[in-house]
Amino acid sequence: MKKEEIIIQTEDVKVRIIELQVGESGPFHFHTEITDNMFGISGEIIVSMKNPTGKIILKPGVHCKIEPGRVHCVSNNHNSETSKYLLVQGVGVYDFIKENA
C-alpha cells in the first residue's frame, strides 16, 4: 500500500515523500496546472509517460519533470524492495485527473 509523508502543503505547492511497495503502481493521470518534479530516494520507480511515450527510471539522485497536461503514472516493478521518491508539485491548483475520466 502506498505510504506518503507530507513535507509541505500550501494552496499552490505540495511536497511529499512517497513509498511504493513491490509491484505497486498508480493510475495514468495528468494535472492541468501543476508540474511534477520527482527525485529518486531509494530503489527504482518507473515513470511512464504518454504523448509522447516515454519512460524514466528514478534511482537515487535521478530527477524527472512532468509538465502540466502530460499523462503519466508511477510504479515500482522491482522484485524485492520498497522504493521511495520525493514529489514536488506546483505552482498552481492541485488536481488529479485519471486518464479516460
Secondary structure topology:
Blueprint: E1 3-9, E2 13-20, E3 29-30, E4 35-42, E5 45-49, E6 54-58, E7 63-66, E8 72-75, E9 83-90, E10 97-98
Antiparallel strand pairs: 1-2, 2-9, 3-10, 4-7, 4-9, 5-6, 5-8
Protein model, in words:
It is a single chain. The chain is mostly beta strands and 101 residues long. It has a single domain (3-98), classed as Sandwich (Jelly Rolls), CATH 2.60.120.10. 0% of the residues lie in helices and 52% in strands. It has no helices and 10 strands. It has strands spanning 3-9, 13-20, 29-30, 35-42, 45-49, 54-58, 63-66, 72-75, 83-90, 97-98. The strands form 3 sheets. It has a 5-stranded antiparallel β-sheet with strand order 1-2-9-4-7, with no helix packed on it. Strand 5 (45-49) and strand 6 form a beta hairpin. The radius of gyration is 13 Å and the shape is globular. The mean pLDDT is 93.
Main sheet: which strands, in order across? 1-2-9-4-7
CATH topology heading: Jelly Rolls
Supply the number of helical segments: 0
Helix-residue proportion:
under 10%
Keywords for this entry:
single chain, about 100 residues, mainly beta, Jelly Rolls, five-stranded antiparallel beta sheet, three-stranded antiparallel beta sheet, 10 strands, about 0% helix, about 50% strand, globular
Outline of the structure:
With 101 residues, this protein is an all-beta fold. It has no helices and ten strands.
